[in-house]
Each structure stands twice: as C-alpha cells, then as structure tokens.
Amino acid sequence: MDFSSNIAAQLNAGAILPEGIVIVTLMLVLVGDLIAGRRASRWLPYFAIAGLLASLAALYLQWDAPNTLSFFGGFNADNLSIAFRGIIALSTAVTISMSVRYIEQSGTSLAEFVAILLTATLGGMFLSGASDLVTIFVALETLSISSYLMTGYTKRDPRSNEAALKYLLIGAASSAIFLYGLSLLYGLSGGETNLSAIASALEISGSSQSLGIAVALVFAIAGIAFKISAVPFHQWTPDVYEGSPTPVVAFLSVGSKAAGFALAIRLLVTAFAVVSDEWRFIFTALAILSMILGNVVALAQSSMKRMLAYSSIGQAGFVMIGLIAGTEAGYSSTIFYLLIYLFMNLGAFSCVILFSLHTGTDQISEYSGLYQKDPLLTLALSLFLLSLGGIPPMAGFFGKIYLFWAGWQAGLYGLVLLALIASVVSIYYYIRVVKMMVVKEPHEMSETVKNYPEIRWNLSGMRPLQVGLVLSLIATSLAGILSDPLLGIAKDSVANSPVLQAAIVQPLSLADRRGIPTVEESDIVVN
After folding, report:
1. pLDDT tens digits for range 23-81
2. Chain-centroid distance, C-alpha 428
3. pLDDT for the residue numbered 505
4. Which residues pair with 194 in a beta bridge?
5. pLDDT at position 515
6. At 132, phi and psi to the nearest 5?
7. Peptide bond preceding 393: is omega within 30 degrees of 0, i.e. cis?
8. How far is CA 213 from the centre of its chain?
9. What is each CA distance from 61 to 64, 87, 492, in whole angstroms?
C-alpha cells in the first residue's frame, strides 16, 4: 500500500491534466471525423477550441500548486511552464478560429488539420515543462513532425510541398545536432537525464572548462536557435512562411517560437548553469545578428508573408534580450512580450488570411488602396502592424519598453541601443504597408482591390475568423494600457519558479554602473 501510494505521489499525474484534456479532445476529434465524415467540419473546430479553453482553465487552477514535479521528475508543472503552456494553448485556439474558412476553401480535410494542430500543441506544452532529456526530445519531435505535416498540408500547392521538404530536411538536421548535444550532456554528467541532476553532476566534476561541455552547449543552442528562427539558423523561415498555409505560419510564428523559448530558459539555466556566461555571450551574438538581418532584409520584401517572416526573426532578437539579461525582470518581460506578441502577430496573420481569401494573393503592392473597399480590414491590419513596430499606445510598445528596460538594468547598454535602432528600422516597413493601404488615391488603387469582392460574413467558417480577428484587435489595443495584470502574471511565473530563482542574476546597482565600490566592498578594502 505504501509502495503504490509512493509511486502515485512520484507520478503526480494530475500535473498534466491540461495536456490530458487536449489528448481527449484530439481523440474525440479523430473519432468524430471517422463517424460523421465531412459533416463533422460543422462542429469539430468549435469542439477543439472548447477543449483548449478547458485546458486553459485547468492551467489556471494549477497556478501556485505546491507539488509541481511529476513522472519521477521528468515534467515540472511550475508557474513558468504554466505561463508558456497557456500561451501555446491560446495561440492554437486562435489559429483554429482563423483556419476554418481557409482550410475548407483549399479543399482539404479540416478535421485532420485540427488533429495535427492539436498534436503539435501537445508537443509544445510538454516541451514547456520538460525537465528530462528524454522528455525534451520526444516533446520536441512531436512538435516538429506535426509542424512538417501541417506545412505540406495543401498537397495540391507546389509551394506548400517545397516548403514542407525544406522544413523537413533542415529540421531533421537541426534535431540531429540538438540530439548530439544532449547525448554529450548525458555522457559528461555520468549518465544522468534529469536536468537538475545533470547540473549537480557537472558542478561536482568541474566540467565547466572542458571541450565536451562547450561542444554540447553549441549543439544545444543550434537546435534551440532553429526553433526560434534566430540568425544564422533562420534559412528555413522565409521560404516555409511563404509556401505554407497561412494558419500554419501563424502557429509556427507564435506557438512554436514560445515552446522554443521555454526550452531555452529551462535547459540553459539548469543543465548549462556552469557555463552561464558562455551561453549568454552566444545568445548576445544571435540577438545582434537576428535584429540586424531580420529588420534590414524585411525592408526589401514584396510578399506580406515573407515580410512577416523576417519580422519574426527580428522579434526573436528582441525577445532574446530578456533571456540574456538573466534577471527577474528579464525573464518576466520575455513572457510578457510573448503573450502580447501572440495577439498582435496572430491578428496580423488573420488579416492576411482574410485578404488572401478574397483576392488569392499576399503581395504587398496588391494592398494599395484597400481602405476604399474594406475599411475594417485596413484599420485592423494597420493597428497590428503598428503594434509590432512598437508605436504607442499599442501593446507592442509597452512590451518593448519592459524588455529594453530589463536589458538596460542588467547593463546590456549596447544591445539595448542596437535594439532601439532596429525597432526604428522596423517601423519603416510596417508603416509602408499602412501608407499603401490608406494614403493611395483612388486612381492608384491596385487591380486586385478594384475587383475586391463584397465581404460575406455569413459564409461557412467566416464567423470564427471574424471573432478571432476582433478579439485579437481588442487585446492588442488594450493589453498595453491595461498591462499590469498581464505583467503581474509574468512576474509571478518567474518569482514562484524555483528553477529560475536559483539562476537569476541580480541587476547592476547604480554604484556598480558608475564603478563606485559598494559598502561591502569598501569594508573588505579597509579590512
């Protein structure tokens, strides 16, 4: 009896209740599709969204849970993982709402698409709380393989097939490199797979200066950088974004990226704690390259999806500032910005989907004069782009303010100044689209907009798209002004996470910045 109760306590299966709800939803979607066939498309998307909302409710109930470790330490359901799991589940719910009409119009099965998307969501949610090398890799591959399938989902489109092939080949290579890094970590720690046990073993053995830990660190960061689209591991991003179905791109830009940052935080601050200075140096280089290349190359893009692809590369550079800072404000600002990024980026892709459903194109030049025919779409897309650019009082402005201030407090002056310059550059290509939609005279209207069809919201799948667009617009407009609750959630997720509290770096004091010795230092000198 004691043995069975001890096993049950170590399993703590209730910690994965949110994932269990998603699994049940996934199974019912598959069974419902088998039984009802094409008729299931009328209710399956809404059932999937309801399941994801129930999963979010379960995550809310788990907040500040006393016992967070489960499955013998392989999964940690602390507040940090809850925040990232919530972002991923919420991004999937919004993605499903915007994909119903798009998938139906492409002539493919909606139920299968929802099932694959829910599988990717499961992988991302498990990855956000994984505390074991085996759990990390299985969750990462669940997310990756599902993403490959969704990328090539519109089989009749050659661009989708090309995108899926590129994504598969580069993704398989990055997974192999990442796995090799994990295997080195396993060997150096003496056969440990738990992240905390690996950290303890490396600290005891004094492996911080060994070549093996350096190679493991580089290989692990290469796998993580692929997931978050950081330069120079970004080559897949523009081509995959342009060729993939737009709802898939929306999920990859938010859900997959959030899972990548969750993996980066948990793996680096735990297993690679002995080389924290080294991995922060590497991420500084990645952030600099991502901000420069992403925002500069976006200036020359003619496709809306490719522009947003390079924009996401630049945004990843901004988010890395919080990770490099390593302070409580840095980690909380990273979570806060990802939560805001969810609404403004998914909202922008909702507008791109709506425009492409009516016109069949995503070329920026074809948006010319859109205000004359569709003021609502023009207003929504303009606000989303301005928020991505960091224009006040939109949510993106406050997200960047918190990120940059956290970096400044941590002494990352050069990085923050570069981020400010890159943010100003990004405003140009966002404003260019807004100007093209709004300022153009009637005689300068593109042929596509001249033939713009009448919007019919009563068509199948249009209402969920409209609801998702409006909710994203409201969140983007109000999340910045009413940012205190969201920032409070982000701060609580960091403050109540033992994993992060053990690794948090104290920000530089004013005396440190000026080179003035503190009281303690003065006492030491006197003595």
Report:
1. 999 999 999 888 877 777 778 889 999 999 999 999 999 998 888 888 888 898 889 99
2. 24
3. 64
4. 132
5. 44
6. -140, 140
7. yes
8. 27
9. 9, 16, 15
pLDDT confidence tier of residue 439, bands split at 50, 70 and 90: confident
Residue-wise pLDDT tens digits, 81-137: 999 999 999 999 999 999 988 888 888 888 899 999 999 999 999 999 999 999 999
C-alpha 491/C-alpha 100 separation (Å) is 35
The mean pLDDT value for 175-199 works out to 91
What are the DSSP E strand ranges found in 274-339? none
Q: Which long-range contacts (CB under 8 A, 24 or more apart) does 86-89 make?
A: 86/56, 86/59, 87/254, 87/255, 87/258, 87/335, 87/338, 87/339, 87/342, 88/121, 88/124, 88/125, 88/128, 88/255, 88/258, 88/259, 89/18, 89/22, 89/52, 89/55, 89/56, 89/59, 89/121, 89/125
Residues β-bridged to residue 69 = 76
Q: Do residues 430 and 389 touch, judged by C-beta distance below 8 A?
A: yes
Q: Residues for the chain: how many in total?
A: 527
Q: Inform me whether the pLDDT recorded for 174 exceeds 90.
A: yes
Task: Dump pLDDT digits (tens) for 240-279.
Answer: 998 888 899 999 999 999 999 999 999 999 989 888 889 9
DSSP string, 73-128: TTEE-SHHHHHHHHHHHHHHHHHHHHHHHHHHHHTS-HHHHHHHHHHHHHHHHHHH
128: closest CA among 66, 217, 62, 172?
62
Contacts of 394 (CB under 8 A, 6+ apart): 344, 383, 386, 387, 476, 477, 480
27: enclosing H helix or E strand: helix 17-36
| Consecutive H or E run containing 21 | helix 17-36
Comparing CA positions, the residue from 444, 452, 437 lying closest to residue 361 is 452
Mean pLDDT over the full length of the chain: 87
Handedness of CA 280, 282, 283, 285 (dihedral sign): positive
| 14-51 b/e (C-beta count within 10 Å ≥ 16 → b) | ebbbbbebbbebbeebbebbeeeeeebbeebbeebbeb
Q: Are 176 and 141 in contact (CB under 8 A)?
A: no
Q: Tell me the three state secondary structure of residue 202.
A: helix
